[in-house]
Known about the structure:
Layout: E1 11-16, H1 22-34, E2 39-44, H2 53-60, H3 76-80, E3 84-87, E4 101-104, H4 115-136
Parallel strand pairs: 1-2, 1-3, 3-4
Helix pairs in contact: 1-4, 2-4
Amino acid sequence: MPPVSDAPKPSVLFVCVHNAGRSQMAAAFLTHHGQGRIEVRSAGSAPAAGVNQAVVAAMAEVGIDLSAQVPKVLTPEAVQASDVVITMGCGDACPVFPGKRYLDWRLEDPAGQGVEAVRPIRDEIEGRIRGLLAELLPRG
């Protein structure tokens, strides 16, 4: 077991337009693989009414339940409270604050697609999350 640290947890915010697909998958994977070591948020610049059901199904295939998740609106406070902001196609709608690390992950949008089309997007997101974890939580 790693030693307990007084250092604050790194915090990551995932942003896409509807907060119904890509950002929900990324947040779920980071929460799952981060095992409580990272503060995770997700939001959308124009949130949908619900999470994409093909995304819910694709994530269920890998043991992650998104059925209770609700898209959230992007606020300046969420950006300010985050160390890393990862955008996924929200363009100019994402507020920019000095001192934050911004990454733009260009990923296909799962909106309107079936679970077969969502699986490769899900798998790419999980790979990127594993890389992000290696950066944020270097082994000591």
